[in-house]
Amino acid sequence: MPMIETDLFIQAPPEICFDCSRSIELHMESTAQTGERAIAGRTSGLIELGETVTWEAVHFGIKQRLTAKITEFDRPARFVDEMVQGAFQSFHHTHDFTATADGTWMKDTFRYTSPLGWLGKLADWLFLEAYMKKFLVQRNHVIKQAAEKAWERQRDS
Fold first, then answer.
1. Residue pair 49/61 in contact by the 8 Å Cβ criterion
2. I need a labelling partner for 148 at 20 to 30 A (CA). Which of 12, 51, 104, 154 fits?
3. pLDDT, tens digit, for every residue of 64-111?
C-alpha cells in the first residue's frame, strides 16, 4: 500500500487551514486541471463528519467518479476522508493541522491500494504514486494561498 506524505507551512491559524481543506469549492478550484466537480452528496460548502461527496473528474483521459466519506473529524486538528466507491481498491486520507507561533503545519498522509493486483502495483511504481503526489502538492498550494488570503482579510478587518 503506497503512502504519500506532504508537509506545508501556512501562515494562518489551524481553524482557517482546516476549513479551507474541507471546502468543496476550494477543492474544485484546486483540481481544475482535471475538471473535478462535486456531483452528489455534499456539493458545496464545508463537508462535515459522516457526509459523503462524489467527485467526477478526468484522470489519464478517462472520466471517473469517486465517492469519499468523512470518517474522522476533530476541528481544527484533524479530519480523515476514505473512499467509499471509486477507481482505487481503497484509500485513507488523513489531514493534520498543527499550530505554531506564526501559523500552521499542514500534513497530508494519503494511503491507497490500486486495483488489479500486481498490475496495479506496477502502475504505482511506473506513474501513479508520482501522479498522486503531484496532485496533492498542487492542491495543498491552493489551500495555502486561500488560507493566507483569508487570514490577511480577517486581520485587516
1. no
2. 51
3. 999 999 999 999 999 999 999 998 999 999 999 999 999 999 999 999
Given a contact cutoff of 8 angstroms between Cβ atoms, the answer to whether 109 and 5 are in contact is yes
Distance, CA of 70 to CA of 34 (rounded, Å)? 22
Q: Packing angle between helix 14-21 and helix 129-156, nearest 10 degrees?
A: 130
The least confident of 44-48, 105-109, 150-154 is 150-154
Rounded-to-integer distance, Cα 101 and Cα 25, Å: 29
Task: Report whether 78 contacts 98 (CB < 8 A).
Answer: no
Q: How far apart are CA 79 and CA 87, in angstroms?
A: 22
What does the block give as the cell for 47? 463537508
Exposed / middle / buried, residue 108 (Cβ in 10 Å: 0-12, 13-18, 19+): buried
Alpha carbons within 13 A on the beta-carbon side of 67: 9
- What are the boundaries of each domain within the chain? 3-156
Is the domain 3-156 a CATH 3.40.50.20 member? no
